[in-house]
Design a protein that fits this description.
This protein is of the alpha/beta class. It is built from 12 helices and 15 strands. The chain starts with a strand and ends in a 6-residue tail after the last strand.
Length: about 325
Amino acid sequence: MQAWQVHENGEPGEVMRLGEVARPEPGEGQLLLKVRAANINFPDALLCRGQYQIRPPLPFTPGVEICGETEDGRRVIANPALPYGGFAEYAVADATALLPAPDALDDAEAAALHIGYQTGWFGLHRRAHLQAGETLLVHAAAGGVGSAAVQLGKAAGATVIGVVGGAEKAAVARDLGCDLVLDRRADDVVGAVKEATGGRGADVVYDPVGGDAYAKSAKCVAFEGRIVVVGFASGAIPTPALNHALVKNYSILGLHWGLYASKDPRLILRCHEELTELAAKGAIKPLVSERVPMEGAAAAVQRVADGVTTGRVAVLPYGGAA
């Protein structure tokens, strides 16, 4: 079968190599899946660089999120078991962790539903307890993680303010449903959030960026507001001033979604059921901005790593319009 492999760590566009390899053999409790579509996530770039919390043995195939097909023809969503990731014609995954792909979504959309939307659901509902009528501030609102949070926030009845970088991404964020879109390159984010909320600030901040985005969040979070720390796509990990959190009376909430798979997997299934219902109603629909053939995977992962994409990018190992 064809598969992309990483033989040494580095930038995805430089270290990913496409070749013919043996079809992986499932281990105990695993299933072989035909990959119908693989969604690109920022962790795929970190895996290539050797900077992710999981470091599979070299060589490995990246691709942490797929829509696959079982041998009996079921369409499922899975997180492949590394080192046999999703940028291949076949991958393996734990049988107990497979989730049914929603009928309302095509293969590329279904592949993009799991990690970003589960992270958004857990961050907004489990950790921050977002309420209808509250104001939600989403950083990187046009990106894969941010776009999911925007849709989930609107579905929950929140007023959503999206922060993006550039006019093109601002247009995407508006199309996603943001009530207000701010360009971090041109707008005074802190001042605009305070003005839009009558001086109160954002009740919930969803931050997958870190760095300067977090610093701005702390300046415009509301009394009893909640900042959900999801990741550090900027590459800069902030050091929160806890005296500031005390004086302004806000909460800083960390979210490591992957922990729920071992700590409370029932919540993942419950979340998927709710996401499936929202997809069926049309309340959420992953924004797949690019569908690339197998040979374009390395360049696509590099674009995601460089932060120049919007929404999600899906790799289609067998071509077509999945």
